[in-house]
Structure formats: structure tokens, C-alpha cells
Specification:
Layout lengths: L2 E9 L3 H19 L2 E6 L4 H7 L5 H8 L3 E6 L15 H12 L3 E7 L12 H4 L3 E7 L9 E4 L4 E4 L5 H16 L4 E6 L5 H14 L6 E6 H10 L6 E4 L1 H12 L9 E5 L4 E5 L16 H13 L3 H16 L15 H11 L3
Parallel strand pairs: 1-2, 1-3, 3-12, 5-10, 8-9, 8-10
Antiparallel strand pairs: 4-5, 4-11, 6-7, 11-12
Helix pairs in contact: 1-10, 1-12, 6-7, 8-9, 10-11, 11-12
Bound molecules: 3-isopropylmalic acid (IPM) and manganese (II) ion.
Pathway: Amino-acid biosynthesis; L-leucine biosynthesis; L-leucine from 3-methyl-2-oxobutanoate: step 3/4
GO molecular function: 3-isopropylmalate dehydrogenase activity; magnesium ion binding; NAD binding
Subunit structure: Homodimer.
Length: about 350
């Protein structure tokens, strides 16, 4: 019987409406298993810029630090996207949150649903057995290395920089995840070109000696991009840097048939953050059209992280039975669709509390 303080950063676009479904499901878990979740809402992203001028107001950061978990919706708005001169952007809120909280490990599971293989851009037979976890380093590399302009602004640079300690801790997450899954770890890098990648390889090779039960292999990122399309079932756990992980996890996320299915967690510090991997879809906001499954599965990861693994499993089971019954939002069932809110109700009801 636990009592938990959850920081809810629902953000922009469809963020608030999918988070509402996640909360609906968490509340039902509370009833069934006897827990209480206390939700504390705070602004982040474009909404926060509108309200305070800051995409991550100090009050929001303070709330996150004193909570048991952060439940995050989505951020971003097109009015910020095409003006390179803007100094303040919604995305800065997310990046600062990751850095300030020390959330260095981003876990993105990608699995196919048997009843949805017709939605995959790949032929159904290529989706058989697809079940992988992308472990993306989240607080280093090109995202946070020195960047700037020279020559009166005509030359621009971003630095990809990693320390041994940063590599070790994320690769360790990869080894542990592989040990709890099918025992296979793939390090994805560009060690034929980049010095930072050569450090990743060196450190990972050294760590392999202490992890003899995990089968380790190495793959260059360009080949990995190709292999994710040609034969995604070959992967169990992929560990990679911040930028490669961003690109590969977005590419992999469409394999299951809809971006609206995939959850993520960002962990490494006392408090973890849980969010759907999709963006804010501003055109769909407020229309009861968004798929809440990614957010609800993120709530399941949140439960796991709080040590409530049976509760997380119950949520995943409720999602599976709901999808198996053939209902879904318009991304899954254009002919027989249900809205965001109704989909949330169905999954909550499948929890049977
Ligand atoms: C993600 C997003 C972010 C990233 C953006 C919004 C800064 O694409 O979480 O993958 O690049 O990390
Ligand atoms: Mn991304």
C-alpha cells in the first residue's frame, strides 16, 4: 500500500489529453492494488514559455526534484520550429530537465503487436519476433558538448564529447538490461570515423570481461540503420550515444505500426521520468484523436520504476487485451475507431477494478 507523489508535466499539444488517460489508468491501478497517487501539475515547454517566458520554470524543476516520479506528456509547437534566430525554445525545457535531474539513461522498448503487423511499413514476416530495447545515452554527446559560431557567425560547430565514466554507466545499463532479456547487447557507434566512438568501443570491450553471460557485438550506425529495416528481429538490446539513439529510436518506433504505441523512460537518478516517445501533434490537439497507448504504457514503466512490477504488468496486460479485442484510435483502426478518452476508458476497464 503505497502513497506516491507524481509530478505531471503534461506540456503542449496532445500532451494534456493523453496524460489524462494515463492518470485514469494509474487511478484504477490505485483502486485495484490499494495505492494512492498524488498528482502535482506544472508547466513545461511552449505553455511554460507563454506563461513565464521560461520553458522550464524553477518551480517546475523544484517539483520534479521532490517527487517520486515525473509523468511527462509532450512538448513543442510549430511556431518555434522554423526560426533559427529564436533564443528560447520548448525543447530546451526537456533538455535541461534531463541534465539537471541526471537522467542519463533513456530506455525505449520496441515490440510488434501480432494483430497490428498489417500497419507496419515492413512486410509482416519481418516483424515476427521483433522485441528490442534501445538504450540511449541522454545527458552527454553532441547535445551537450560545446557549440557555437566563429568567423562572424559563418562557421558553426557542435562537439561530441564523452568521458569514460559517462560511457561506463550507460553501457552498464545496457549489459544489465540484456541480462534480464535475451542476453544480447549491440553497441552502435561510428568507431571507424569518430574518436568519441572509439572510446565507447574501448570501454565496452573492457566491460565485456565482467559480463561474460551477455553476447556482445558491435555495429556501425549506418549499418544499424539498415539492419533495423532489413532484420529488426536480430536485436535484443542496443546501446548507443545521444544523437545516434535519437535517430535510431525514432526510426524503430514506426516498425510497430504507429508512433502512438511506444513508451519510454528516462532514468539514472533518484527520480525517473516517463513519457510517450511521440511528439505534441499540435494539429490533433483537443480533438480526442490521439492514441493514449504510448502514454499508458509509459505509466506502466513508471509503476515498474516505483517497484510496483505486478501493477505495471497489469497495465500492459490491460493494453494487450484491449488491442486484441480489435478496438483502437484512428491510427490503428481508421474504419472502426474510438476517441482518446474512450480508449482510455476501455483500458482502465480492462484493469477490472
Ligand atoms: C526525443 C526528442 C528530443 C530529443 C527533442 C524534443 C529535443 O526528439 O526525446 O527524442 O532530440 O532528444
Ligand atoms: Mn527524438
Amino acid at each position: 500500500m503505497g502513497s506516491f507523489k507524481i509530478a505531471v508535466l503534461d506540456g503542449d499539444g496532445i500532451g494534456p489529453e493523453v496524460i489524462k488517460q494515463g492518470i485514469k489508468v494509474l487511478d484504477r491501478v490505485g483502486v485495484r492494488f490499494g495505492h494512492t497517487f498524488h498528482y502535482h501539475f506544472a508547466p513545461v515547454g511552449a505553455v511554460a514559455i507563454d506563461q513565464t517566458g521560461d520553458p522550464l520554470p524553477p518551480e517546475t524543476l523544484a517539483l520534479c526534484k521532490e517527487s517520486d516520479a515525473i509523468f511527462f506528456g509532450a512538448i513543442g509547437h510549430p511556431r518555434f520550429d522554423n526560426d533559427p534566430t529564436l533564443k528560447v525554445r520548448p525543447e530546451q525545457g526537456l533538455l535541461r530537465l534531463r541534465k539537471e535531474l541526471g537522467l542519463y539513461a533513456n530506455l525505449r522498448p520496441v515490440a510488434g503487436y501480432a494483430q497490428l503487423t498489417h500497419l507496419s511499413p515492413l512486410r509482416p514476416e519481418r516483424m515476427v519476433g521483433v522485441d528490442m530495447l534501445i538504450v540511449r545515452e541522454l545527458t552527454g554527446g553532441t547535445y551537450f558538448g560545446e557549440k557555437g559560431r566563429r568567423d562572424g557567425g559563418n562557421t558553426a560547430y557542435d562537439t561530441c564529447i564523452y568521458s569514460r565514466a559517462e560511457v561506463e554507466r550507460i553501457v552498464q545499463v545496457g549489459f544489465e538490461a540484456a541480462r534480464n532479456r535475451r542476453g544480447k547487447l549491440t553497441l552502435v557507434d561510428k568507431a571507424n570515423v569518430m574518436e568519441s566512438s572509439r572510446l565507447w568501443r574501448e570501454v565496452t570491450q573492457e566491460m565485456a570481461a565482467n559480463n561474460p553471460d551477455v553476447a556482445l557485438n558491435y555495429m556501425f550506425v549506418d549499418n544499424a540503420a539498415m539492419q533495423l529495416i532489413l532484420n529488426p528481429a536480430q536485436f535484443d538490446v542496443i546501446v548507443t550515444d545521444n544523437l545516434f539513439g535519437d535517430i535510431l529510436s525514432d526510426a524503430s518506433s514506426v516498425l510497430a505500426g504507429s508512433l502512438g504505441l511506444l513508451p519510454s523512460s528516462s532514468v539514472g537518478a533518484a527520480v525517473g521520468m516517463f513519457e510517450p516517445i511521440h511528439g505534441s501533434w499540435p494539429e490533433g490537439a483537443g480533438q480526442d484523436r490521439a492514441n493514449p497507448v504510448a502514454t499508458i504504457l509509459s505509466a506502466a514503466m513508471l509503476l515498474d520504476h516505483l517497484g510496483l512490477v505486478a501493477e505495471g504488468d497489469a497495465v500492459r496486460h490491460a493494453v494487450n487485451t484491449t488491442l486484441e479485442s480489435g478496438v483502437g484510435t484512428e491510427d490503428l483502426h481508421p474504419q472502426h475507431k474510438v476517441g482518446t478518452n474512450a480508449m482510455g476508458d476501455l483500458i482502465a476497464d480492462a484493469l477490472g477494478a
